[in-house]
Amino acid sequence: MHDPENRLSDYIDTLNAEHEPEERHGAADTPEMEKLLATVRLVRTLREPALPAHGYPERLAKTVADKISKNKHMEQKQGMKPGKRRRSWIWPSVTAVVAGVLLFAALSSWSDWFKDDMVYAMEKAVAQLTNYHGILEMRSQNEAGEEWSVRQAELWSEGDKYAMRQDDGTLTINNNEQKWQIRPQSKEVALLPLVPDLVKTGFDLRDEAQRAKQYPHTVVGSEEIAGRQAAKLKISPPGGLEYYLWIDKETNLPVQLQTAMQNALQTTYTFSSFEPNTQLEPQIFAYQVPEGYKVVEKDPGQLVSTIEEAVAISRLTPLLLPKAPARIFAFLDRIVLDYGDTTIIETAAQGSFEPVAGSALGTAAGGPLEVWQDHLRWRQDGLEIQIEGVKRAEFARQIAADLTLPDSAQEIVNKAQVKVPVDLEIAKADQQQVDRGSSPWQLDPLQVSLTFVNLKVTPEGIQGEPKIPFSSFKLGANNGAQAVVEVADGPIKQVYLERLIRQDETGIWSVVGYDPR
Questions:
Q1: How many CB atoms lie within 10 A of CB 5?
Q2: How many Cα atoms occupy the beta-carbon half-sphere of 132 within 13 Å?
Q3: Coil, strand, or helix at residue 264?
Q4: Residue 473, Cβ density class (10 Å: 0-12 exposed, 13-18 middle, ≥19 buried)
Q5: Global pTM value
Q6: Residue 3 CB: number of other CB atoms within 10 A?
C-alpha cells in the first residue's frame, strides 16, 4: 500500500491539474481510502470557498494518515488481525473527522483549490479560442480618481494576427508578416516595425491568462461586467504592483483588466461586447493601400490609445497634463500629445541644451526656457519638452509650475557701461536686406556680437578666422526685444543688443552698448 498521506496529496494535485487521478495513480487500494477520495471529489465540486491557511490540504492529509497509522499500531499491539477492527474503530472516528473537516473546509475556507480552478479554466478557454471580435473600452483615471480619458476600439484577433480600429478611424493591423497603420485623417499608410511588437491591443487575452497562472493571485469578489457575471482576481507580480483581472463565469474568458497606477494614471480595459470563435472576414488582415493614400516608411510613429502603450514603444516616462490629448503618437524615444490647436512633444534629453539663435529666454524647471516663434522648449526630469500652438503657455505652466516667460517690456540694455549710437536709417536698410534674404546673420544676437567685438579687436576688418572665436560668446538674456551676450575673451565682457526696427523673430539685432573687460 502507498503511504496514505502521499496518496491523498497526489490525488488532490492531479485533480487541481484538471487530470483524472485514477488514470495516473490507479484506483484506491482500501475501502477506507476509496471513501476518503470520494469525499475529496465531492468537496471539489463546490465553489467559492476560502482556505483557512496555506498548506491546509497537505496538513489534512497528514492528519488522516497519522490517524490510520495510529489505529493500525493499536491493532497490532492488541493482537488483532489487520483490518478486523479497522472498519468498526477507524471509520466511526476517522470518517466522521475527515468528512466533517473536509466539509467544513469546503464550505468555509477552501478557496485555493477553486482559485486555481478558475485560472486553469481560463487558460483552457483561452487555448480553445481560435479568434474573436469585440469592442474594447479604455478608461484612464488619475491618482485623484478623476477620469482622464475614455476611448473605444474595435478588435479582431486570430492566432497571432490582430487588427484594431480606434474611434477616429485609425486602423492598426499585424498579420504576422507585416504591421501597418491606416490613418484616414492624413491619408497615410504607416509601415511599423513588426518585431518587437511592443503594443498589441492593450488587453491581450492570451498574455493575461499566462500572467494570471504565473503570478500569485486571489479571488476577491464577484461583479457584473458589461452585463456578465465575472469573478474579480487580484494579481500580485513579485516585486511589482497589484492589478485586477475579471473573468466571465460563463465563458471563463477575461472580460476586464485594471492596470496598476503608473505614471499617475490607471487604465481599465473592458470588453463591452465580445464574440469568441466567430467568422472573421479574411481581408481584414490583408495588406492593401487605400486609393489616394501615401505610404510612410521613415520614422512613422504609431497612433496609440493609451499612455501605457506610448510608454512601451517610446521607453519614456512622460510628463502629463490633467487633461487627456485627442491623440497620442509614440516613437522610439519620443511621445507626441496632440490637443488639436496645441501639440506637446517629449523626447529623451541628450547632450547640452542649446537655445535657437535669436530666441527669447525664460525659465522653466530651474533651467532655461527657449521662446521661439509659436513654441516653448525646456528640459525637465530627463526629458526635453517642446510645446507648440495656441495654448503653449497655459500647458507649459501645468507641467513646469515655475515657468517664467520673458518680459519684452523689461529694460535690460540700460545697464551698459558704454553706449553705442545706432543710425536708424542704416538699421532700416539692413532690415530690408535681411527681408530679401541677405545677411541672415543679423537675426542672431551671437553673430552680431561676434562681428562687433572682433571689429573692436581688428578695426581693419576680419580676415579669415576671427580672433575671438564663436565659442567665446554665450547668450545671457533675451526678452525678445533686448538681449545681453556674455563674452569669455577679449576686451569686451558683455554686449547689449536691441531689435530697433521689428520686435519679433524676423527683426534684426543692433548693438546698443557694451561693458569693457
A1: 19
A2: 24
A3: coil
A4: buried
A5: 0.60
A6: 12
Select from 335, 328, 334, 379 the least CA-distant residue to 355.
379
* Phi, psi at 464, each rounded to 5°: 70, -140
Q: C-alpha cell of 119?
A: 485560472
Contacts of 453 (CB under 8 A, 6+ apart): 468, 473, 487, 490, 491, 492, 495
pLDDT in tens, 255-268: 999 999 887 889 99
Cα gap 145→265, rounded to integer Å: 9
Closest to 313 measured CA to CA, from 301, 325, 324, 326:
301
Look at residues 2, 63, 10 and name the one whose alpha carbon lies nearest to residue 30. Answer: 2
Residue owning grid cell 491623440: 327
How many CB atoms sit inside 10 A of residue 46's CB?
14
From CA 404, how far away is CA 387, in angstroms rounded?
A: 15
H/E segment holding residue 485:
strand 482-487
Using one digit for the tens of pLDDT, what is the confidence trace for 320-378?
A: 999 999 999 999 899 999 998 899 999 999 999 988 877 888 999 999 999 987 789 99
Cβ distance 493 to 487 under 8 Å?
Answer: yes
Amino acid at 91: W
In contact, 246 and 99? CB cutoff 8 Å: no
